[in-house]
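Morning F.,

Quick status update on the modeling queue. The single chain you submitted on Monday has been processed. Sequence for confirmation:
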Amino acid sequence: MNEAEQTAVSTLTAIMGRTAAYTGRLITWDEIFKSDMDLGPKKIEMGPVDMVFETPVPGTPLAI
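C-alpha cells below.
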C-alpha cells in the first residue's frame, strides 16, 4: 500500500496545528496551502558540520 497521501496530510495537519499555536488563531486548509512560510535554511550546503556529537552514558545527567 502507498501511504504517501496519508503521510502528507498528517504532516500538513501538524504544521497547521503548530501555526495555529504560534499565531493564536484558526488556520484553514486554504490558508496553509497558500502560505509562503519557509522554515528551511536560506542556503543548503554540503560539507563538514561544526557540531559536537557526544555519546550519552547511562546513569549520568544530560548536558543541555
